[in-house]
Write a structure and sequence with these properties.
With 483 residues, the chain is α/β, with parallel strands linked by helices. Helices cover 27% and strands 18% of the residues. Strands 1, 2, 3, 4, 5, 6, 7 and 8 form an eight-stranded mixed sheet that branches. A five-stranded antiparallel sheet has the order 9-10-16-12-13. Strand 9 and strand 10 form a beta hairpin. Helix 4 crosses helix 5 (78-87). The protein is globular.
């Protein structure tokens, strides 16, 4: 009879061996001081805009939130209890949603084309969320079951993980490796960088709950589950973004986050290109990691000294698809453009989330928002991509004007989100130089006339019918030779 520790050792040995370290590479020690000194790969700051995809078993009930299981079983919130009572038979368990996660409409090539149309430059898919299953364990390890008072709760993965036996998208539901299919289509049909989200903890995993009851002095769960999964997805799918989440109030020492990140930066197949976020254990958020997320829907409105990301949702209230969402629950395209412009002006990236249905379809409302963003970026993308923050992030005179800058070309971009009632736009921050400063509207060929006034530069906007303007929802002035 094997002990839990014996099982953990067996599971640990199953993860792939690290790749040989290059002699010419910088070496990072498993300390935050060393890991935080790693320069962020330059591609991440240049791309500015990505798409988050929350997809999993929560997409089957598609009610309330992607935290459906927690709210139903743990918190026993009344709307969730009534929903289950009304729509599912008595005794229906969360694991019964597994076979209903069918994904029959999932077409990775179609998804790749839709994502490409958004103008985004990277995508992050939820490879595993916080959910697990209480009653499934691989038969190969059935002899170890008696060493547990209850069977191991395995987090449902969108790939055929060795560490989530019979509880993944290859063995249950779609019977397909979702991660592999989407990674292949993204790489073959687009130039987007492919990334994966991974939850460290699982709500109801007995190993995690046991560790928690011991104040995380034992480490059975990360040794048997989370760490092997991380090694597995990195070596198998080589994501360029590794988006960690869900620390379960456990410290980074419990997760051995610094040890894993040292391997990721020194020896992994993506050691030169991978970027990571800041969610590697209690106390690390907005403090350690490659870039900061700080909180969900984080948009400080001012420049930060460290690279950051605004991860947010088109649906104001949920990351997963909700069948009970109202039209007013979705951000408008004007609101999304505003989020993008504000975020980039303040040095951040925008990671905009969509939630597919259980059958693998991207709902039309999300498709519309994605294509609208792509339409706006097809005109104004030069003011977004490969820019840096300017000395002022927004204008001091006219509200709704945000700045980005390309120092090599000495081009300042003023993105204004509201068309003025008069024919002039006043810019209080830039200083024009007579006969040296040229002003153009991106997408409009003719130079614009401007003059200096008491409050700053006064730019004469083109007098065109609204339908003849180069774009909707926000416009960009290109200022060359301004200070």
């Amino acid at each position: 009879m094997a002990s839990p520790i014996g099982l953990s050792l067996i599971l640990w040995l199953l993860h792939p061996w690290p790749l040989p370290q290059r002699a010419d590479a910088a070496h990072y020690e498993p300390t935050w001081e060393s890991l935080d000194s790693r320069p962020l790969p330059t591609w991440f700051d240049e791309v500015k805009f990505g798409i988050f995809i929350h997809w999993g078993l929560f997409s089957v009930p598609s009610f309330g939130s992607e935290w459906f299981w927690w709210y139903w079983q743990k918190e026993k919130r009344e709307p969730y209890l009534k929903f289950m009572e009304k729509n599912y038979p008595p005794g229906f368990s969360y694991e019964d949603f597994g076979p209903l996660f069918t994904a029959e409409f999932f077409d990775a090539d179609q998804w790749a084309d839709i994502l490409k149309s958004s103008g985004a430059k990277y995508v992050v898919l939820t490879s595993k969320h916080h959910e697990g299953n209480l009653n499934i364990l691989h038969s190969e390890f059935s002899s170890f079951i008696s060493s547990f008072q209850q069977k191991q709760s395995l987090g449902f993965t969108l790939w055929g993980s060795k560490y989530s036996w019979s509880w993944n998208a290859v063995d249950v539901g779609p019977k397909r490796d979702i991660v592999a299919e989407l990674a292949s289509s993204i790489r073959n049909r687009t130039r987007l960088h492919f990334g994966l989200y991974h939850s460290l903890f699982e709500w109801f995993n007995p190993l995690f709950l046991s560790d928690a009851s011991r104040a995380f002095k034992t480490k059975e769960f990360p040794t048997a589950k989370s760490l092997p999964e991380l090694y597995e997805i990195v070596t198998s799918y080589q994501p360029e973004v590794l988006w960690s989440d869900g620390d379960g109030n456990a410290p980074e020492t419990y997760w051995n986050s610094t040890g894993f990140l040292a391997w990721l930066y020194n020896e992994s197949p993506v050691r030169d290109t991978v970027v990571t976020n800041d969610r590697w254990g209690a106390g690390t958020i907005c403090k350690h990691g490659g870039y900061y997320t700080c909180s969900d829907r984080y948009n400080p409105g001012h420049l930060l000294p460290h690279k950051w990301e605004n991860c947010m949702t088109i649906d104001k209230y949920s990351w997963g698809f909700r069948r009970n969402a109202e039209l007013s629950d979705y951000l408008t395209i004007e609101e999304l453009v505003k989020q993008l412009v504000e975020t980039v002006s303040c040095g951040g990236n925008l990671l905009m989330n969509i939630g597919p249905t259980h059958d693998g379809y991207i709902p039309v409302i999300f498709q519309e928002r994605l294509t609208q963003m792509g339409k706006w970026l097809s005109v104004n993308g030069e003011a977004i991509f490969s820019t840096i923050p300017w000395r002022a992030q927004n204008d001091s005179v006219t509200p709704g004007v945000w700045y980005t800058f390309k120092p090599k070309e000495n081009i300042l971009y003023a993105i204004f989100l509201n068309w003025p009632s008069s024919e002039f736009l006043v810019l209080g921050e830039p200083k024009g130089i007579a006969e040296m400063t040229e002003v153009k509207m991106v997408g409009y060929e003719e130079p614009l006339k401007w003059t200096s006034g008491e409050k700053g530069m006064i730019v004469a906007l083109p007098q065109l019918p609204f339908s003849k303007l180069p774009c909707e929802w926000g416009w960009t002035l290109q200022l060359t030779g301004a200070n």
